């Protein structure tokens, strides 16, 4: 292979990877749109009743038919789906019936709250899980290893909402260390809220999501490090006199960091699902609370918009994991180029 060809192959491989990701994203969003639309059309939610609300009894059948005709609800399913899909492609996600605002405005206002919550919980659970996994592997079959495994297995089967309620009762109601809920102090204007106030209200939801998300990373890291410590090159390093933390740092951490990072990025969907419950328990004004309200009160445009946004968020997280993996591990780039 010529020198110019060897330089161009990684670039072509990366362009092909980006195109493949783009095709997968379009296919995913179309499938989510189609499935979400069919589920909403077959759900017991009546969009006209959800929009009119308590005044539904004052509307005559003729007025109901006029509303249905105005919204195109009297058309076939294919026509309705095509109109909705065309509006989405033009950036029109509709108007939220609950908040009386465009759906994109509602999502934009709450996105930063949820992003702060999930980013802090994701980073804390990943770091804590990795440290616990390393300690458990280094202390294999000791009481420390058994305690960490018991802790992880217990948390893996613990519902997020139950853990949130437990922390709320202990630290907010009994001890009074943290606020009962909400993202800012009650009765205070937005311009009076400081960054410290927001962080103070964020602590308990972050702890709830973090201690639930520790289990997978800790158990996975423990198993991978045990396999590394039993490999031939580690046995050779032990024969040269290396041991303890120096041995793990030199020969183990790099090999177990990549799987841990990938697993942590892959857990974004679980983190988003847990955030929905945690935000509801703590009355935290994020996307999860908006999704619950939209589902309970029949806000179809907002619910569909949040479903699409959550699919896009999870896809972005998985893509970031793949990109970091390609950047850190050159064997993946070389393997893709050879293929």
> Under CATH, the topology of the largest domain is which?
MetI-like fold
Runs in which pLDDT lies below 50 for 5 or more consecutive residues are 1-5
Count of distinct structural domains: 2
- Structure classification: mainly alpha
CATH class membership of the largest domain: Mainly Alpha
Going by CATH, the homologous superfamily of the largest domain would be MetI-like
Q: How many strand units?
A: 0
- Per DSSP, the total helix count is 15
Major sheet size, sense and barrel closure: none
Q: What shape does the CA trace take?
A: globular
- Termini, distance in Å? 14 Å
Q: Per DSSP, what share of the residues sits in E-state strands of 2 or more residues?
A: under 5%
- Give the second-level CATH assignment, the architecture of the largest domain: Orthogonal Bundle
**How much helicity do the residues have?**
over 70%
- Order of SSEs, N→C? HHHHHHHHHHHHHHH
User: Taking all residues together, what is the mean pLDDT?
Assistant: 82
Question: If you compute it from the alpha carbons, what radius of gyration comes out, rounded to the nearest whole angstrom?
Answer: 25 Å
